[in-house]
Amino acid sequence: MRPRKRRKAIQFSASDPEGMWGDVLGFRPHGGRFRAVRRLVTLLLWTIIAIPIQALLLVLPGRGHIAFARIYHRTLCALMGLRLQVVGEPAPGAPVLYVSNHSSWLDVLALGATLEAAFVAKSEIDGWPLINMVARLGRTVFVSRRRTGTKGEADAIRTRLAAGDNLILFPEGTTSDGGRVLPFRSAFLSVADRAQVVQPVSVVFDRLGGLPACRRDRPLFAWYGDTDILTHFWRIARRSNSRATIILHAPMNPADYPDRKALAAACAGVVADSCSTLRQNRPAVPLQAPIPLKVQRAETLPA
Q: How much is the mean pLDDT over the chain?
């Protein structure tokens, strides 16, 4: 039999798959678009419902506003189809300074659903409509990247820690591409002296579509570079069955380290090692940061 001749040439889409409109208007399964629209609408509705509840809880006595903030983030994760796997336990007592790697705005959802703590965020977020209201109701501490305001912002963080509040800090200072952990800036840990303990946290998005995430999938979760948040939300909201694994490492005593640089290096090493293990789709366990030899020797001396 002779092969049939094709009457028309194969037609390809002229849209740019990497651009915003190519991703939104390109030839994609309609189910993914419906899922993204549904998630956007439900997230907005839940946020509108949660705002007056949180505002009321803030003026009432007790810790209701802290518990509800965690419920709010848990619901956001459920609406986004983001499952959470938590390994380890939060440090008991307060105040605790949690230090975590940072690759996306999804980190805020995952950590907010896991920990009873407020965030330390960049000051630019305070200018984003609706998001700034949610952040303020969550008692977020805003910091700038300018050195002129560093001292005042550090004092604000110390005040919150001295009042017994737990805080979540991203010492990388920016988001990464999800394939590595950037060096921790020691300046961010200058406030660790007011915390009872410092607890390193590793966050890796390791499942997509119910399957282990590979190197190709990392940029899908990561929000970095010039990508705007709406474009990134659309890309990830179209996907199903994603998961974030959160490792809560052994708490660290800031007094065991001679300076903030040593503390930052120890935290970064623990977080990076655990993230590397998770990215290889291997089971990870909470790690213990090494204690300087001088401190170990002092503890072994007889009283």
A: 85
Q: What letter would DSSP give residue 9? A: P
Helix (H) or strand (E) holding 235: helix 229-237
- Determine phi and psi for 197, rounding to 5 degrees: -145, 160
The amino acid that residue 40 corresponds to is: L
pLDDT, tens digit, 9 for 90 and up, residues 126-148: 888 889 999 999 999 988 766 54
Give how far Cα 281 sits from Cα of 205, 212, 276, Å. Answer: 10, 7, 9
The rounded distance, in Å, linking the Cα atoms of 50 and 47 is: 5
- Taking residues 290-298, report their average pLDDT: 64
Residues 6+ away with beta carbon under 8 Å from 17: 23, 26
CA atoms within a 13 Å half-sphere pointing along the CA-CB vector of 142:
14
Give the pTM: 0.85
Alpha carbon distance 254, 260 (integer Å)? 8
Q: What DSSP line would sit under 165-210, residue for residue?
A: --EEE-TTSS---SSS-PPPPGGGGGGGGGSSEEEEEEEEEEEETT
8 Å CB contact between 142 and 123: yes
Place of tokens 């069955």: 241
